[in-house]
Every structure is written in C-alpha cells, then in structure tokens.
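Pilot study result, target chain (404 residues):
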Amino acid sequence: MEEKSLRITGTDKTFFNRITKTLTKMLIPTKIGINGMLISIKRNAVLKAFEAYQNSNENYNQKETEEKYNTAYEAYLEALDKYVMDSIYKKVKNNTASEFEKEALSKYYEITSLKENEYIEYKNRKQKYLLELDNDGIQVSQKEKLIVRYNAFYISKMDTLYKAILKNYSIKLADTTNGYESSKEWIYTKIFYTLEEYIQKILSLKIRIKKDNNINDVMKEYENYETYTVGKLDAKDTIEKNVLLLSISRKLFTHSLPLIVAIQCYEKLLKDARILVQDTKIAVKREKAYSMLINLFEDYNVKLLSTKVYWENTKEREEFKAFWKQYKEICKLKETNFIEYVRQKEILFIKNDMKKISEPGEKTDYSKLITYYRRKLIDYGAIRELKNSYISKGKYVKKAKQVA
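Predicted structure:
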C-alpha cells in the first residue's frame, strides 16, 4: 500500500508540474503583449516630451519641459526593465527563448553585476543596454515615422551616455592613488572599446541619416577607420585603428576625454608600438611597425603636445619647446627638399625617443629597440660607428658615436 501510495503521489506531482508549465507558457505571450503595449505608451510619451524639450528655449518653460522629459524617460526605462524581467527571463527559464533573447538576458546580468563595485558604469551602461534593446525592434519595424522620431531621441540620449561612460574612465585613469598597472591597462582597453562601439553604433547612424552638422570634421578619419573593420587585424593594425579612434575622440569627446587623458592613451599606444618594433623578428614586418611608430610620434607631438598649455613639469616643458623649435625648422624643408625633410624629421623623432626610453625611471627594457634606433641613425649618417669595440655578455659590440 505504501509503495502504491508513493507511486500515486509521484504521478500527481508530475501531472501538476505539466499543468504549471503549460499555464506559464500560456501566460508568457500575454505578459509580452501587456509589456509591449506599456512600452509603446511610455515610448510615445518620452518622444513627445523630448520633442517639446528640444523645441523649448530659455524664455519659455525650458525647466518645466526638461522635468517632464526626465520623468517620462524614467518611466520608459522602467517599462523596458520590466519587459526584460517579466518576459525574457521567464522565456529563458522555461526554455522557450530564442538565441537573441538568451544573449539579451546574459548581457543584462553582465551589466547588473557591475552595480555593487562600479555603480556609475552600471547606471550608464544599463540605460544604454535598454535603449539598444528597444531600438533593435524599432529599426526592423518598418514604421518610418516612428524610426525618424526615435532616431533623434536615441542619438541625443546615447551621446549623453557615452560621454558619461568615457568621463568615468577618464577620472579613473587620472586617479594617482591607484598604483596598479594592470588596472590601468584594463581602463585603456575599456576606453578604446567604448570609442569603437560609439563609432560603429552611433556615429555611423549619424552619418547615415545626416543628423549632425559636425560630421564632416571626422569623415576622413571615419573612412580610414572603416578599412580596419574588414578581415583579421594583427598587432600593428590594432594600434593604427586605436590611433584613429583617439583622433576621432579629440573632436567628439573633448570634455569627456580631456587632453591629459588623451596624452596617457597615446603614451600607452607608443609603448605598444615600441614593443612591437622591438619584438618583431621578420625584417619586413619590423620595418612596417617602425614606419607606424614614426607616424605615431608625429601625431603625438603635433596633434597633442603642441596644443598643451599647462605643464606640471617645467623640465618637460622646456625639453618640448626645444624639440618643437627643431621640428618647425625641419618643416621648412618640406617644399624645397622633401626627401631631406623626411630624413631629418625621422632622425629628430628617433633621438627624442631614445632620450625618453633611456631615462633612469623607465620600467620597460628597451635595449633592443635602442640598438635598432642606433642602426637607423648610422644608416642616415646621423651618428658614426667607431672601429673599436668591447665585449658584453660574451659578444663583441661596436661603439657608436654621434656626429658633432
């Protein structure tokens, strides 16, 4: 009797479980429908409030329209958040979700995991995620009027969110209390990733719909960037792509990525480029990496340091002034003797970098790069190789001397 009773109980549980699962599957579409209607209502409200705010001016209810817009925006985000938790979560839990929905929930939890330790990044990235989720559906809806209205709101809000994310990274990078190089490296990675994400998702949208009047200022760099979106990138290509990202950021995110942070990012790329030249064994690839490094020196000195007004270190300021004076003299050769202009400029960059990487405080071992630089200077006749030599680590090493 006891055995029979257990069997009956087990059968009953299975039966009720099946009923529960069936009811859940029936209710999910209803939830999606309710949430869909709610999102649509809240979306229309935020678009209306955004357009009123855009059309307002300082003399006519600007503060009031801004408050209404912010309130409508918060309600809209809550509706989107509810959609993720009520609909997508339940579909994933009941194994009825599509791959897109599974990925969407995975990204949602990835962002939520930032809440405890990185609240500012969590707050901005969660908003960005929810807007992207709704935007994906709108773009495929083929509702042209809605798409046009939403694009204006979407671009405006995304610009604000990306600027906030980059500003947060800039603060972290400028934080001198954090002495761990590994965490700094991770911040650099996040900055370049965020810049690329913005260019792919927002700048490309602006270009497509001709939304921004300042687009022409970055079109050349954007077109160059597009060449790095096809095929697999090697280390050299990745550095060059990141240089382009920084160049574009100087025009789009001047305040979010201020000069001091941009300089740090360029110095990070210079370090990567030096190591690449030093470690590359194949002569042809090394020469290509070296050419990239020379171009990077010019970008760094001309586009950034020459615009720097305030210098904390007086010695560095005087050294750059001396360098800049030589650079301007060399530039005079550009029209009359281009080959000599290129040669002299390269010599100046090499000597300037040799001085920097030979300083006592330099943590990276650039001895192989310095040897490579010296060989370049000898080839250019900037220094001469002496006949006498000395033994170092069991090898004969020829001395090189700078020509007076």
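One observation from the pilot: The first helix runs from residue 2 to 55. A full batch analysis is planned for the follow-on phase.
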